[in-house]
Amino acid sequence: MTVETSAAVRNINVSQAIAESLRLEMARDEKVVVLGEDVGLQGGVFGSTRGLQREFGAMRVRDTPIAEMAFTGMAVGLAIEGYRPVVEIMFVDFIGVCLEQVFNAIGKIPYMSGGRVEMPVVIKTAGGCIGSAAQHSQCLWGTFAHLPGLKVVAPSSPHDSKGLMAAAVESDDPVVFIEHKGLLLQKAATFEHGADVPKERYVVPLGQANVVHAGSDVTLVTLSASVSDALAVAQELDGTGPSVEVIDLRTVVPLDLDTICASVARTGRLLVVDEDYVGFGLSGEVISGVVERLGPQALRAVKRIGVADTPIPAAKSLEEAVLPGRDAIRRAIDEVTR
Amino acid sequence: MTVETSAAVRNINVSQAIAESLRLEMARDEKVVVLGEDVGLQGGVFGSTRGLQREFGAMRVRDTPIAEMAFTGMAVGLAIEGYRPVVEIMFVDFIGVCLEQVFNAIGKIPYMSGGRVEMPVVIKTAGGCIGSAAQHSQCLWGTFAHLPGLKVVAPSSPHDSKGLMAAAVESDDPVVFIEHKGLLLQKAATFEHGADVPKERYVVPLGQANVVHAGSDVTLVTLSASVSDALAVAQELDGTGPSVEVIDLRTVVPLDLDTICASVARTGRLLVVDEDYVGFGLSGEVISGVVERLGPQALRAVKRIGVADTPIPAAKSLEEAVLPGRDAIRRAIDEVTR
Amino acid sequence: MSTPTLLERYRAMLEMRSFEEACQQGVPTREVHGELHSAIGQEAIAAGMLGSLREDDAVVSTHRNHLHALAKGVDPRAMMAEIFEKSTGLCGGFGGHMHLFDKRLRFSTTGIVGASLPVALGHAYAAVLGGTGAVAVGVTGDGGANIGSFHECLNIAGAWKLPLVVLIENNEWAISVPFSESTATPTLAERAPAYGAWGKRVDGLDVEAVTEAFAEAVAHARAGHGPAILEATCYRFRGHYEGDLDLYRKADEKAQRLAERDPLALTRQTLLDRGVAGEAELDAMAAAASARTAELLESVRRDPSPAPATAHDHVFVSGR
Amino acid sequence: MSTPTLLERYRAMLEMRSFEEACQQGVPTREVHGELHSAIGQEAIAAGMLGSLREDDAVVSTHRNHLHALAKGVDPRAMMAEIFEKSTGLCGGFGGHMHLFDKRLRFSTTGIVGASLPVALGHAYAAVLGGTGAVAVGVTGDGGANIGSFHECLNIAGAWKLPLVVLIENNEWAISVPFSESTATPTLAERAPAYGAWGKRVDGLDVEAVTEAFAEAVAHARAGHGPAILEATCYRFRGHYEGDLDLYRKADEKAQRLAERDPLALTRQTLLDRGVAGEAELDAMAAAASARTAELLESVRRDPSPAPATAHDHVFVSGR
Ligand SMILES: Cc1ncc(C[n+]2csc(CCOP(=O)(O)OP(=O)(O)O)c2C)c(N)n1
Ligand SMILES: Cc1ncc(C[n+]2csc(CCOP(=O)(O)OP(=O)(O)O)c2C)c(N)n1
Ligand SMILES: [Mg+2]
Ligand SMILES: [Mg+2]
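ok -> structure tokens follow
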């Protein structure tokens, strides 16, 4: 389904890719509206809605007061009225003030209405560590994924950011779209995968993981900003060490267990690398999902690394110690292939 | 650690057991205060704070307006002042309006303060299905467990409710205490395990699971209201079918993997029965935790049942179809022992 | 829109009362196996809404929502079937009494206190986006007026001049907590200046007073002057939910209110006093309403429950 | 408590300014590797707090919190070390600039907008529970006054007559959104009647006016009359955070405010006009403040970073 046109492919960064995708969606469908803090005049604190207000006006791209309950709940009324709201919650950590609207209303109304009311809503937000400590560094995709009725997306590259945002906006189901702050701030030229972004609209479908590096000894499942770390380690080991297959999930819900299991069935070794909290989240789901499908006997080794159930500390020395960076990935590969 | 005195043991129900435990804690320590909607005059909509206001006054047992952000956040200020607040959030489903206070403040302040500020707070709430549909039937222990800094308790009996509440109140760490509405409303005489409740204070320590039925073929891990279903099936199979070891987790965080793994190491078969949503939660954590500790090869079969990523429907016919009841448990035991 | 006469409003109130009484019958039988929140005693407010709203106006209600649904024109049969957990229900039995959705009529509800207003605000924004001239009514109880979303929504509606009508049913109680103990001011309408809003407190037992005040509130919002707060005072005649022992209220206070301040009795007396109708005519009207509802209930009871195999449908409308 | 003189307040303002400037130095060097929110331009508000608070009064601040911490008496060295991510910091480097906690002084902060007031409300309740006569100050920005917790806390404080002082620093902007576009009323103080609260708007660049108004607000709360809202107007001199390009504000508006409405310059002029001190003395005072802060910064920079091995400590104070 991914349309890859060689013509008019550019190097743009993640925030530009998202803004461009939203621009194309808004131009296609006048029912798409964007709401959130600083999304209009400023174009988003990370620039991922830049230019939209100038092009579509202040009603369709609306700067809101700091009132997440109100403007996230507005998405429900707007959706009932036939709009397709894209709501920005600046940092995913702020979900604590409006989870109600997201999980009890947006996520459940399609079901509670017996399928009669659709919620084509995108909750667009930023996660991940960039040095701002415990209340501004979380990923929380595991939190959303646990709650029924929400699709959950976390792209790793400019290419996927654009195509997955198109899929999210055109989806009739609600989608939580978690951009990574580190990726949003990363320079276009430094992306090593998914750097080429076609100019025209294209869709990266929800629920299809991407094998970004083929390998035969270990299946490494990851997503978002960790993909580049995993890739770097896999490339480093190419020829010299274990052959690592790196799977970029792209979406947490739906979880592409087909792709994961096909790989693990070959490698017999599963390593999950997840910047979210380790416990009770994505990594446990991937492991259990594989064990359920393939049977425990199909696996030789299993491991997961992530933020080990610790809030993110402020100091850089501490922050590095809790994050699953390249060294930790190397060590984990060592362990599962030992 | 559990003090079991044969004298003065009574049959009381879960809400009485909790109220009695709170009464003993409040009498022991004048710093314990209870805040929440309808906890005072009415004694809680499930009666689990009954009698406390009469005994300790309206300041220490305070009926609040419907303003969960405010009164949950108050716990932070009260804790800094040396109080030990017990905050009731009537139904766990309402956490959507005040998760902020629970996960970004109460759960993280001990860490963010470098261990200098304790948060001896109990968030007391009710979960589980009793027919009130999608917004009043959730368990959500998986949601809390994913977030660092929170202990999570979900008792299955009057005995444990009393002893675990004592542990929660005396804990210097924040505890989310999830009562089950079905258990709160269950008559004392109908409890088949943990029905005897000593009159005096006792503590059931956090983090120690309880083997409520010994068995050798399958390890069934469960908690809260599902324990009685699991027990009933295990007893039914006694002698005639597979021998099922039933483990009542009691606390989700800390998760007692020692007890679980000791059992699975013997049985080789693991079944998790969880009334919470299946995906990205407790059941995945139990399975992954066991696989990590024992290695996948130590397991012959693994399964989990729960609410399969569907909101809870209103109609009884639908509700029964999504819940992991006795039939589903029987079928699952069949499957893992086949 | 023609405004119904007092007699017509009285008929509507009778129908509302009998609808609520019919629903109650499902509780002891466990046909309604969850909580049921009755709005008996609050009929004059919903009946006062009649005639002011257009089909494309939105109404977003709470846990105590049946009468607002009826006032908005939601099909009573589909509603009752939903409340009785039938596959023929408004939501196929998936939503239940607290979760009624009628997309065409822009009617919805929520079981979470305070969650109605943000949804109504979204409808109000849609009205401005689409230039439709529609308004959105967000309902809350007195207790619900103390939760944060009340403030967020009224502030936004005030700042953006959105056509939001906040209808507060002040029935003096939020479960066991009296209004006076949970609220900083003697009334809720007096909060209006904090939001640049229109505000009025009205006797919610007086259907004519409500009619006038509600029409005024809607007109204010529809004219583009921004939000309106209408506080209608009333009294919760039943426990918070059916089965609530309701021991926290003085029994005599309650008995007196029921005896002396029943909005149906008050309206009936007005009709009699004014000679609009006689005892016999009004009795017949009441009997007819009861009979119609009894028939409805009987018919709904024959409907099937939803098929268990469908329980996992609708999580995603895309089917996956 | 003796109330500081204007000259002493000016000295405090100089120290606050130089503290903020020192912190800024850590940004380009990445010694402060996350966001840093500077309160330059808002010194007169914090300096106006001096002298009204007891040690057992609580202050709960926001993301823009340094000056409130200094006003409450938090050790500047421990603060700067925390901001510079040092193991010697107030929180051992675990909290960082947005998360300062001083239990003894009942001072804390939060990085979540609106989350300060509920915590302050808890302190206010503790003051009444313990009968201590203490008050709690909850700080918010103008943007933060539009979030739901503002309403919940003021309503509770009003209903229960709790000694809560809500100090609103209205610097006209919430990141890129101007106050006037996000708020239904021309001022925030005028919300006070909705909560039965005391309310006043004061020029937050005028340290004497703030001093008087803040003392009045605190006295109101301390006397048991319930909550107070003090809105202090000011202007955000820097970008929202250090590094914010700040392209959404008119450059000339900002330049003019900086040139003509700097609270330090205004206070200095008053001191000169009144002949309290001469140019040379005030210059020397400024130089001394800068020198002291420079020394502090130099010293803090020599402190160690927290040991990586400790990163998993403190999740649970019980150790497990
Ligand atoms: C956020 C939230 N908190 C608490 C509840 C539980 N609850 C349901 S109705 C209710 C009382 C509501 O009182 P009011 O708003 O006055 O409405 P009334 O029931 O009187 O019609 C409460 C506390 C809830 N549903 N949602
Ligand atoms: C709940 C929440 N929403 C959004 C943010 C992001 N944010 C941080 S500061 C800020 C602006 C605050 O404006 P104001 O209250 O006026 O304070 P100021 O920055 O002007 O001091 C925003 C939107 C947040 N931290 N928390
Ligand atoms: Mg009420
Ligand atoms: Mg501001």
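Chain A touches chain B through 59 residues (CB under 8 Å).
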